[in-house]
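Intended use. Records like the one below are meant for learning the mapping from a protein sequence to its folded structure. Do not use them to infer anything beyond what is encoded.
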Amino acid sequence: MLAVILAVSFISVSLLFFLLLRSLAGGYGEYEERYLGRTAELIQQGASFIPVERLMHMKVISAFLLGVIALVVSSGLMRPVPFILAAAAAGIGAFIPDILIHMKVARRREKFNSQLIAAMNTISNGLRSGFSFLQALDLAARQLPDPAGQEFRLTVREINLGVRIEEALENMNKRLNDADLMLLVAAVRLTIQTGGELPVVFGQLSDTIRERNRIDGKIKALTSQGKLQAIIVVLIPVALGIIIHFINPELMRLMYTTMMGWAMLAAVVVLDVIGFFMIRKIVSIRL
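Structure written out for the chain above:
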C-alpha cells in the first residue's frame, strides 16, 4: 500500500512539474515572439544590422555578467543581500541592450529631424526648377548627409521598384516615426490627390516646422532647470551617504550590515526614483 501511495505521489509531482515547465516554456515563447517583433522594428528605425536573435543572446550574456559581478563584489555582505543585489543587477543587465538600441534610435531620429527642413527646401527648389517629384526626392537623397540621405535613397529605390509615392513616403514615416515627417507625408498625400502645388506646400510646412522647433527649443530652455533639479534630488542622498561614511564610518556601516539598514536603503532608492520621475513628469511639456 505504501509503495502504491509513493508511486502515485511521484507520478503526480512529476506531472505537475512537467505542466509547470510546459507553461513556462509557452510563456517564454510568447514573450520572445512579441519581443522579436517589437525589437525588429526598433532595429530598423536605428538602421542597425544586428540580428534580433543575437540581441536576445546579448541580453542573456549582459544579465549573467552583471549578476556575477554583483554577486562577487557583494559576497562579503550579510546573506541574503548578495543574492538580492545579483538578481537586481541581472535584471538591469537584461535591459542594457534595449536601452542602447533606444538611445541609437532617438539620436538618429533627432538628427533626421534637424535635417528635415533642409530636405524640404531642397525638394522645393528642385520642383521649382522643373524637376518631377521623384527627381526632387533623388536630388535630396544625393545632396543630404545620412540619415536623411539614406532614408530618401531608400524611398527613391522603392518608388523605382514600383511602389506608389504615397506608400513609399508612408514606409519612411513608419521607419522613423517622426511627428514632423508624419505631417509632411500627410500634406504630400493630400496635395497629390487634390492636385495642389507642392512647392508652396513645402514652403509652408518648412515655416511651420521651423517655428515649432523654435518653440520647442524655448520650452526646453525653460524646463532645463527643473530637469537639473531632478538630477540633484537623486544625487543628494548618494552624496550625503558618502560624506557620512567618511565622517563616521561606524555609523554608516550599520546601513549595509543589518537588515534594517538594507530596508532603509531600499526605501531611499524607491523614494528617490519616484521623486525623480515625478519632477521629470511635471517639467515635461510636449507640443
